[in-house]
Amino acid sequence: MTEAGTAASSAATTLPEPVRQRVLTLAAHALGQLPASDIPAPLRRFASFAPAKRAKLSASVLGPILDTDDHFRRLAAFEVRREHPELGDAVADGVAVPAADPVEVAALAYLLRPDDWEQHVAAAAQVPVENPRADEEAVNRLADQLDQARTETRQVRERLREQVNELKAENVTLRRKLNEARQRITGLQSEVEQRTKEAGSADERVDAARAEVERELRKLRTRITELEAVEHAARRTAGQERELASTRTRLLLDTLLEAASGLRRELALPPGGELRPADTVAGSEPDAAPVGRTAPEDDPALFDELLALPQVHLIIDGYNVTKTAWPNSPLHSQRQRLVTALGALVAQRRVEITVVFDGAELSGPVQLNPPRGVRVRFSPAGVIADEVIRQLVRAEPPGRPVVVVSTDREVADSIIKLGARSLSASSLTARIART
């Protein structure tokens, strides 16, 4: 035995009886909360008992183990402190609790073993023991209550005996009635058997008719379900077509209106077509500025001019741009940097932007937080991003300006045939760098 175990044993043997009883009660309660692997073998058979029974029956074994097994005592102390957090923390931290019961404090101090635990035990030893005479009076009072309970139990037992006799007499009567009922039932069984045979043939005919009706009902329900599905699909398709047509018409109308307004401003057209008095004054007029211009696809100025078109839709080949701008970064970093930069572009120019990434590059679900106004799409399985870009261009109404950013010549040639404008990835990266 170690010096700590010897000291603990010596201290435990000097515990005041109230403190020792409280220690055993707390430890017995904690015993039921511990896993079987942490419980010493002699105590495991008590772990499944009720707390009161466990404390009573395990006292002779639990006390010596608490005195000698510091590991088990610390496990029990942990459970006791968890059950009594406020007082346990105060005792463990050496904080005085004047209102607490000295016996309770000493029991917790014995289990938790703070530096001043022996002082708590000594303070509990100074608590006066209750008056034996008062205990004797309490015992006498309990004895009187026990006698009264026995008398009441005897009276209840006599009443129950009388009720049992009454029930026995009633049982005899019921048995006689039961025998008479059985005789009547035996007489009726033959009649029931005869009628059952007659009803059997009728039941067969009814079952056949019911089966035929159920078959017809199933056919009708299947047909109704099919018709309802067709009707629902037709309604949904018609609604989607109406909504898509309305959206395409509205976008085209907005495009035409803004284009007409921009053309009026660019050509400096007068607000009305009639002749004004100032038009009669002779003078030299300036030459008109040229409308539109040609420029290479990577010209940043051309990119800004296309973004200024009314209702323009900017479609971006995602990985084509990111692998040009940040080829050494991971794919997830490339995606987030691109959509973040495009968010700033949306805030400046108020354009509609759609970024398409190739779904074949993905190894699992994508975590991406695109800013407001930036639409992100991944191509479905078996479909490349180039085809999704062409679908987006085809979905736009004729006349709306659509600009596709991609260095892929195949993509550029195909979307030009569809009426869209193509720009290189370097024009977008140059514009992002300026932003």
Automatic annotation (TrEMBL):
Region listing for Disordered, in residue ranges: 268-287
UniProt xrefs under InterPro entries: YacP-like
Pfam families: NYN_YacP (PF05991)
Source domain of life: Bacteria
Coiled coil feature spans: 139-230
Keywords: Coiled coil
Name of the protein: RNA-binding protein
Annotated organism of origin: Kribbella sindirgiensis
